[in-house]
């Protein structure tokens, strides 16, 4: 009986997303909008850890800013603003 109770207490998700980077957060956003249960698993202590902590002084993108944004975010100059 205890085994059945333990299984009932464990959360259940339709989708498991491994990694809380840009791609993981994007898919999480669209799954949430679609009403699909999911969880994002990230090995670091914060989401987007690489964006915040791993920087290269000479790194530059050659793509427009809008291609590098998370869903439903707009840019105003260099500042990201949520809708």
UniProtKB/TrEMBL annotation:
Lineage top rank: taxon: Bacteria
Record GO terms (molecular function): FAD binding
FAD-binding domain boundaries: 13-49
Pfam families: FAD_binding_3
Name under which the protein is recorded: Putative flavoprotein involved in K+ transport
Organism: Xenorhabdus japonica
Classification of source organism: Bacteria, Pseudomonadati, Pseudomonadota, Gammaproteobacteria, Enterobacterales
